[in-house]
Amino acid sequence: MPVEFLSDDQVAAYGRFAGPPGQGELERFFFLDDAARALTARRRGDHNRLGFAVQLGTVRFLGTFLPDPLDVPAVVTDYLAGQLEGRRRDAAIR
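and the corresponding structure tokens:
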């Protein structure tokens, strides 16, 4: 991708979290709707489901995958884990 029109700071920040997303950004980009939950549920193991959900939200938010998939603010993983945990509780009740 040509980046000549970007400043050095913009190039360095591209594809990375500049800081933790706010509540509105979490709700917009990291909310797992029914379709995302269905995709995520097909993964084996809690860690795989969380990792898939993090990647899904990250690509929505940044427009690309992270070079280091572990370089995600804790607020993102907490937000997604809470949604996935809620789904597990709902399934156990049924």
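(Above: one complete record from the training split.) Residues 33-93 form one domain.
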